[in-house]
Write a structure and sequence with these properties.
The protein is an alpha+beta fold and about 170 residues long. Helices cover about 30% and strands about 20% of the residues. The protein is elongated.
Length: about 170
């Protein structure tokens, strides 16, 4: 064999060996449809269930459940509370709340007119009817507020803007 032919055969064998080593590194000949089903997540923890006691209604539930009259503004009285507490719970463990009576009218149209003016100015106003000495009065209220200071601030705004003398009322059960 000639020297040139021998070099060509050795070169072809070296190139074939390099191809067998490098081609699998460059190209992945693995099955693309094969899915790796091994999980790297830890096992689920064991959780023991506990029994939660169902809430029971207290014995004096008739007294505590009367919330229908919570905002019965007809029963409201002018605030003569001089304490420093402007918010919180009262002696019956009910939330103290305040409403502002902006006006009281015998004619419903006047009450609705004032209510609409207050709403246009950004106040949350509503009208409630109250029967006093067999006469029906339509009272215009603003609120309710959970803080007396905010009710007093709104009283000052309403009194100056609408030329009224409004009353801050606290609901008394």
């Amino acid at each position: 064999m000639s020297n040139g032919l021998q070099q060509r055969i050795i070169g072809a064998l070296v190139l074939g060996a390099l191809g067998l080593i490098i081609l699998p590194i460059i190209f992945d000949f693995a099955d693309p449809l094969k899915i790796d089903r091994t999980s790297k997540l830890p096992a689920a923890p064991e959780i023991k269930s506990i029994d939660v006691a169902k809430a029971q209604r207290p014995d004096n539930s008739a007294k505590l459940g009367e919330t229908d009259t919570l905002f019965d503004v007809v029963k409201s009285q002018p605030a003569n509370d001089t304490s420093e507490t402007f918010y919180g719970l009262d002696e019956n463990d009910l939330l103290r709340h305040w409403v502002l009576q902006a006006g009281s009218f015998e004619e419903q149209d006047k009450a609705v007119n004032l209510m609409q003016q207050l709403r246009d100015s950004g106040f949350k106003a509503f009208v409630k009817a109250a029967v006093i000495d067999n006469k029906t009065f339509f009272r215009v209220f603003v609120g309710p507020k959970a803080d007396k200071r905010r009710a007093m601030a709104e009283k000052a705004k309403i009194d100056s803007n609408f030329s009224t003398d409004s009353i801050v009322l606290q609901y008394v059960p």
